Amino acid sequence: MKTIFIRMLARLTRAQGLHVQALLFFALAITAVVFAVGSEPVLLASLMPGIAWAVLLLSALLGLGDVLEPDWADGTLDDMLLSARPLPALMAAKMLAHWLATGLPASIAATLCVGIMVPNTASTLPALFAGYALGSLCFSAIGIMAAALVLGSRRAATLLAVIVMPLCVPPLIFGAGQAASTQMGASPEAALFLLAAFSCASVTLAPFAAAAITRMKVTTP
Amino acid sequence: MGFLLCPAMHTLYKAPMLTTKALTIARGTAILTQDLGCHIDAGDTLLLTGPNGTGKTTFLRTIAGLLTPTSGHIDKTAPSHWIAAQALPPSLETVHDYLAFHAALMNVPYTQPRDVFGIDTVMDTPLYRLSTGWRQRVKLTRLLLCERALWLLDEPSDGLDSSGIAALQNLITAHTLSGGAVVIATHQPHLWPTAKTMAFGGQP
Fold first, then answer.
1. Do B107 and A83 touch (CB under 8 A)?
2. CA atoms within 13 A on the CB side of A216
3. Which residues in B lie closer than 8 A to residue A216 (C-beta atoms)?
């Protein structure tokens, strides 16, 4: 399983440079927002945790087109279906590889952004990072299901966004709630626990859903 | 059961490997292939021939278990290797990594396979540096990663030069002599002159 996971991760990072794409996209999107709303420090400090959440969601969309589609095109997905390994386990590996390649770097970047732009936040950063990481894990889990759904369709990128965005609203709301309560000096625990619960559910269920969808997509003539 | 006790008869008995009966595969209302029946015993080579788009690959994928037939049934007694026609993409991964990945998918420990196709010298070369024919050799080497009785090959001779084709022919002969069976979809049936043939395509 280790060989399989490393190959999936290498295909996303070394071959497609997804981690660099995610970081670059994050930096550019945040910069664009700063130029658009102006560099008023007080305003930025209050907006930044929420903006980082929105950009995190957008950056999770980045690699989704590359997670299953190349395997579908070159026949690797066939081999995965016929594999001696359970397909949900292979999908879980795909999901984790996508999160490690996009979600984790973007979460780190988001935490750094907030740390730099919002004064006196050092103590809340660990909780904030946990929130970003859990949230992006949800995005990857929902994303792998959506990637399976759009396999083989033209305009996959647009479809992906349309499918993923609504499903990602709950973790986005929990995450934004956590960020807001942190800013008001309240305890972020409640929102963080809701986020953790949502990511537990999506991470365990999504691989099975993605496997079922993929199997249906491939075996239907 | 008397023949099992008689040694002479026993050597003549060939184990059935694959039987399909009245296999029909349809996409919506369009029938892709209809009423296909075939029977393969150990030691057989079956060629699927016919013009483009007549359902050879569809039939092979169905036997492999990748497509659900609309009606009819498949009786497969042995595990199979499926080698699709798609060429390997010229990716960054090395030949060794590619083969190790497929061994891991088959859940067998990876040991360097027998060097039937002469790829030992390129084991550490990334796939994008190899030509089409060499990538085809690498793809076919997957057959040697673990023993499986039934081989399902879609256009295996694509891109191979004469020495590659000779290696493929020898490999297939050795496999059938040792009790395996091979089904090949091909446009070059002359490469396997002694094989059984199943012709596709009454109408396109």
1. yes
2. 10
3. none
All residue ranges of chain B with pLDDT < 50 are 1-12, 203-204
A149–chain B nearest CA distance, Å? 18
Q: How far apart are CA A163 and CA A142, in angstroms?
A: 9
| Cβ-defined contact of A79 to B102 (cutoff 8 Å) | yes
**What letter would DSSP give residue B27?**
E
CB A19 within 8 A of CB A13: yes
pLDDT in tens, A58-77: 998 888 888 898 888 888 99
Cα–Cα nearest to A179, from A115, A103, A105: A115
Contact between A148 and A210 under an 8 Å Cβ cutoff? The reply is yes
ipTM of the complex: 0.84
The DSSP annotation for A63-95 comes to THHHHSHHHHHHTHHHHHHTSSS-HHHHHHHHH
Of A11, A70, A85, the CB nearest to B105: A85
Instruction: For residues B37 and B122, give the distance between their C-alpha atoms in angstroms, rounded to a whole number.
Output: 42
Percent of all residues in chain A with a pLDDT value above 90, rounded to a whole number:
46
Other Cβ atoms closer than 10 A to A68: 28
Closest residue in chain B to residue A7, using alpha carbons only: B101
Alpha carbon of A89: minimum distance to chain B alpha carbons (Å): 11
Q: How are beta strands B196-199 and B30-41 bridged, if at all?
A: unpaired
> What is the reported pLDDT for B13?
62
Cβ atoms within 10 Å, residue A20: 12
Q: Any residues with CB less than 8 A from the CB of A10 and at least 6 apart, and which?
A: B92, B93, B97
The pTM score is 0.87
Q: Is the Cα dihedral B125, B130, B136, B137 positive or negative?
A: negative
Q: Inform me whether the pLDDT recorded for A202 exceeds 90.
A: yes
